[in-house]
Known about the structure:
60% of the residues lie in helices and 5% in strands. The protein has a 3-stranded antiparallel β-sheet with strand order 1-3-2. By secondary structure, it is mostly helical. It has 3 domains: 6-76, Winged helix-like DNA-binding domain superfamily/Winged helix DNA-binding domain (Arc Repressor Mutant, subunit A); 82-155; 157-228 and 253-261, Tetratricopeptide repeat domain (Serine Threonine Protein Phosphatase 5, Tetratricopeptide repeat). 25% of the residues are buried. This is AfsR/SARP family transcriptional regulator. Residues 1-77 form the OmpR/PhoB-type domain. Belongs to the AfsR/DnrI/RedD regulatory family.
Amino acid sequence: MDIGSPQQRGTLAMLLLREGTTVTLDELISGLWGDEPPRSAVTTVRTYVYRLRRVLQQEGDDATSLESSGGGYVLHVPDGAVDINRFRAHTLRAAAATRHGDRRAAAAELRSALTLPDGRPLAGVQGPYAQGQRARLEQWIATAHLDLIEAEIHLGRHREILPDLTAMAAAHPLWEEVQALYMTALHGMGRTAEAMEHYRRSHRALVDELGIEPGAQLRAAMHHILAPAPTTVNAGPRRPRAGGSPRRRRPAWVSHRRLVR
């Protein structure tokens, strides 16, 4: 569909992203021009809406309508017509599968979600609103990518995801979640010494660049790596102490507290 100039595309983007709720004329003007709209802003936005309405009518889709509503406009589209809604549905199903411990189903849903983005979100759309939404959507996509990597790690697919994860770790040296997953993948492949060295490099980067110590995720990854591997010898159930329950064991990482801090 030829939906016109970049600002006309921006108008359509605002209407679509509001998902069937009214966007006021003032919101459209602010979203396109920010605090310095032209004097003709009201007339220009109304022209954009008129042209968009004509394009939609030419498509002959009765399920799509652009209507005036409460001093603004609302765009109604069929369910599933907007890729962001399909993306959300996949990620919600992935989250539910993760909660139920079904990492395989979660990974499948996340792969389906990540086939939807095609290039940069809102490519060619201008204005303050599009700029803010673009950052939000890029973050959403990146989060889904990390969730997929985490699911793949739980499935033991360290070798398959390591190339992408290596690139992400290099591109985002201060993103602790990425660094923690990278360390975990290295450790899962038996490259524990590299994982520990990467922790030390990440630690230095955080201190030098931000003046902070590693957060909970990065520390937890290090604790996991330092924890002793579970024994394969079945010594049978431990006998309870007299007068009570078995003695609680101290977490393995406690002995390494000085190292990781």
